[in-house]
Amino acid sequence: MMNASLRYSFLRMKPACLWLLAACTLSYVGGLNAAEADAITSNLTEQEMKRGRILFLQCSACHTLTPEDNGGKIGPSLANVFGREAGAAEYFTTYSSALKTSGYVWNRETMDLWLLNPTAMVPGTSMVFGGISDEAQRELLIRYLEIETQP
């Protein structure tokens, strides 16, 4: 159960600056290149990175950021997730057939839909997660993942 101060900090999160939102709303079919990742990293404040880490805690119950290793958790590693086809990490073998055949490629748009409501996006998925309804929190988590999941 989330403690009151952590819940309060989630509620106080402010949306990202419009200029950064505009820069980050591109669909990354092939993932970020080094220059794009550096640009996003340099535009995230230390406070935003801390908030991203806090938001990632709910993901870390099932996922790691370690390449090619899920650390014995029930979900795949999210390392290098952007640009990867959903349900296609070779080392992870317990994807639902619904996710494997969904045809999605992870980019900002698909990640946002997934984080909003995985079961609505891919009916039959085995991921048990209620979603993040707050758009600003999803945006910040995606920005955090873009940085932390790069090689």
How would you describe this structure to a colleague?
- With 151 residues, this protein is an all-alpha fold.
- The chain has helices spanning 4-11, 18-24, 34-43, 46-60, 97-100, 108-116, 118-121, 135-148.
- α4 packs across α8 and α6 crosses α8.
- It starts with a helix and ends with a helix.
Helix content: 40-55%
Order of helices and strands: HHHHHHHH
Integer average pLDDT: 78
How many helices? The count is 8
Q: Which structural class do you get from the secondary structure elements?
A: mainly alpha
Spatial gap, N to C terminus: 33 Å
Number of E-type strands: 0
Pick out the low-confidence regions.
Answer: 1-32
Q: What characteristic shape results from the CA principal axes? A: globular
Our Rg estimate from Cα atoms comes to 15 Å
What percent of residues are in strands? under 5%
Q: Largest sheet, described in full?
A: none
